[in-house]
Amino acid sequence: MANIFAKDTFAVVDLETTGTQRENNNHIIQFGCAIIKNMKVVKTYSFMINPHREIPLSVQNLTRIHNEDVEKAPDFSHYAKKIIAILEDTVFVAHNVNFDLPFLNYELMQHGYPALTNKAIDTVELAKIAFPTLPSYKLSDLTSRLAIKHLNPHKADSDAYGTAILLIDIIHRLEKLPQATLNTLGSLSSGLVRDTSWVLNKIADYYRKQKRPLAKEFIQVRNIILQKQTDPSERFAGENNKFPQDNKTKKEMFKGKLNYRKAQVDLINHLHQFIKDPNERAMMVEAPNGTGKTFSYLFSYAYELYSGRKLVIAAPTKVLQDQIIDREIPQMLEITKLDLKAEVVKSSSHYIDLDGFVQSLFKGTPNKPTLVLQMQILVWLTETKTGDLDELQLTNYNAPLFTQISHPGDARVGSRFAEVDFWNLARKRQEEADILVTNHAYLANHYMDTIWGQNPYLVIDEAHRFKENAISSRNDSLQFESLWGVLSHLRNLLYYAEDSVQNQFSEDVELNFLLKKLDPEILELIYQINDLQKALYEQKDLAISQSLLPNGNLQLSFQGKTLFPDDGAFRSQLPAFQQKLEQVRQGTNQILFQLYQEQTSLLANEESLLSEITEQIDRLDYYSEKSYQLADLINNKNNLQEEGFILVATNPEDPLSSNLQWLMLDADKELKQIYNRFDHLLFVSATLTVDHDFSYAIGQLSVEKLMPITYIGIGKSTFNLNKHLEVLAVKDMPKPNSEEYEKAIEEIITSDLLQKNHVLILMTNLDTIRETFSKIINNPKLKDFEILAQGITGSNNRIAKRFSIAKKAIIIGADSFWEGIDFHDCGVDLVIATKLPFESPDQPEVRLRQKRLEDLGVNVFEEDSLPRAIVRLRQGIGRLIRGEKDHGQFVILDSRLWTENYGQEFIKAIPVKTEQITRKELKTKLDNYDQRRH
């Protein structure tokens, strides 16, 4: 590897300070520095510095630097000259350089020294660019992922050394990039923080002079370098594609690769019998965690796929999809020696559109996050074989860039990138695959897709969640305020902005005629939107529930027949609104067409104007489509019975702030249509029964007419669950919702969990999560834990990621944390259920569903609320024990388990004996669990 930076000395600096705001009497308490010469760390420095003030508790918790550590240390004036000498003629480097350099300069200037003017580079931005698929760019996470050893994270000397090794790794990675990628990175990099671009340009310039050829594994299309795609390998028939009937043969096959477990083989044999029986259509299997249910169904169906039929597997989450593709299917193929191919099926928007991405590189000056993201993607394109944006491990795909670079799902014929288009290649692989893995929502919305093939088999994994996911994938909205915003922006582009169409083309007679005709139509459309909003708001007193959200929005729930009476104003006004929306869309289209006639003379800023107008037309199309969906719903009386509606007023006093959402309350017809497309359907989950009875799940999943075979794997777990799981229930907790109860929860979190590493605290209410988080976040007893809270510390996806990366972490969550998120990478030691997981009737979707059941004469508590809560509790327990290597404790803090009659229903559902304990006994039980277990 060439030493491009042989003449450069890097000074990698990390400061620990009393706080982040340097002007607010905050000072440096430790200066750490590592010097790099010839890509090696040659010296380190560490100075403890007296700040002449108290170190805040939160800083002591983070840095482990206490007041006594610095009280006898010299102050900054003692070290200032020495620091200046160390940094002289060096390139200043820091992990977030815009914190360390300004802070250090502020201290120097306060002591009468000039500010440093060194070249300064940032390792956060460089790490994102060099390693685009890492889940986190916190220094401790980077050093852990890249196996960089430093002993004391959040101590300046240790962090400086870790950052120095990180910088060396980054430079080595960048040096390996193809020249065209380096060139493009260099051309984009001027927008990076301070002098960070210097690193990229120096590497690019050096290798440009070397005239390196493009390595064999790459292909260049325009200025983009991609991995070469290999053609699918030839197929062969496999050693033996006949299902092994006797268990002895299976035992031989499993030897050295998989433990032979009788419970698992029993399940395989039952599944095989079902699949071979032409008279059976459906089977429901409850198999506890640890029975190897995924391997079992893969093994059973695999031998039937040589007839040209495909197996479609629908799972609820990306984590489970990845596990099936990356672990379970390869293991099954290794054992069976079958030659089968498997692919993930997901929406085209998950794949990068190379045309859109290249256009984005030439579209003006992006903001900083977009620029860094573009540079990350350029490097990622040299690594990816799929073009699946999920590989970037971002926790938020809402950045404006994604609307431009997400693949629209068309064939891309005639594009420069047609031959290497990732979406088209993915579709080709899916057509050739034998096993397709997708998610519940995608299956529910694309069950008629030809990709599934003729008469395919279907497995619905985690089937207890299928109906809920199918329903939520069909829910939609008509955001009147957003449409109003689109129309205002459109008027600005056409008439009022400095570079509006009217101002730029004032001499064009035909264009001005079209503009003059369109403006009153846009205004009329806005008035019609207002009339629709008023018509909805007038019904507010008829809502079956209403709540004021923390963000100040008013949320009102309605049954369809109440919100849209036959003689209601909304019904009569909607067609006129749709007609006017279409007129405005067509009028804008005519103007756009006229502008394109002038295209030869268009300047760059005018091209950008055309692009923006096109975007507004797309949005008008979108709202038009939503309005027709809504019209279909309210004009079909049968459909109307099966839909709930939620009116959200962003200002409770203003009818013109109203927006409408709708949600499916009964998916019976939709589920049956999906089932008709497939054959030999298997519904599998660890929680399909209530008190060993499938009736609730059969009703929920609308499979009564399929007359499913049922199979329970209870008692057939492949390991002794009692040795892996301990369930404790505290009998003397205060009443839920009381102040005493909330105080007890806080005490338990801050006093009883300290010996644990990964703790999941499950709640049933987001407000309670907020209150609990604010009470515990700065508690010094929890200083070793990363504390994560739903709705506060980022998206659920980000929280799950942080939890699996951190050495010690606590999540406070509700909803999907009971059942929708898995922690395969780190495991969970302890789950605390603060309350029995009954749904909150304040949630509009819950109230609407329950009201519909009440109208049908159903006992809502016994037939809906209680079985749902029991299934959810069992799922909560399932967060702990995912396999035979897992151990943990599950604690219930709801005394209703013992005081209410229905408590026994929950106790019966718990797979091991529940131990009743007192609040006083809890800490001891938690602290000595491992000792008792061994």
UniProtKB/TrEMBL annotation:
SUPFAM superfamilies reported in the protein's UniProt record: P-loop containing nucleoside triphosphate hydrolases, Ribonuclease H-like
E.C. numbers: 3.1.-.-
Short sequence motif DEAH box: positions: 461-464
Top EC category: hydrolase
Record-linked Gene3D superfamilies: P-loop containing nucleotide triphosphate hydrolases, Ribonuclease H-like superfamily/Ribonuclease H
Biological process according to GO: DNA replication proofreading
Top-rank taxon: Bacteria
PROSITE patterns noted in UniProt: HELICASE_ATP_BIND_2
Swiss-Prot/TrEMBL keywords: ATP-binding, DNA replication, DNA-directed DNA polymerase, Exonuclease, Helicase, Hydrolase, Nuclease, Nucleotide-binding, Nucleotidyltransferase, Transferase
Domain Helicase ATP-binding: 250-543
InterPro entries: ATP-dep_Helicase_C, DEAD/DEAH_box_helicase_dom, DinG, DnaQ, Helic_SF1/SF2_ATP-bd_DinG/Rad3, Helicase_ATP-bd, P-loop_NTPase, Ribonucl_H
One Gene Ontology MF term: helicase activity
Stored Pfam families: DEAD (PF00270), Helicase_C_2 (PF13307), RNase_T (PF00929)
GO cellular component: cytosol
Sequence positions that bind ATP: 287-294
Family stated for the protein in its record: Belongs to the helicase family. DinG subfamily. Type 2 sub-subfamily.
Biological role stated in the UniProt entry: 3'-5' exonuclease.
Protein name, UniProt field: 3'-5' exonuclease DinG
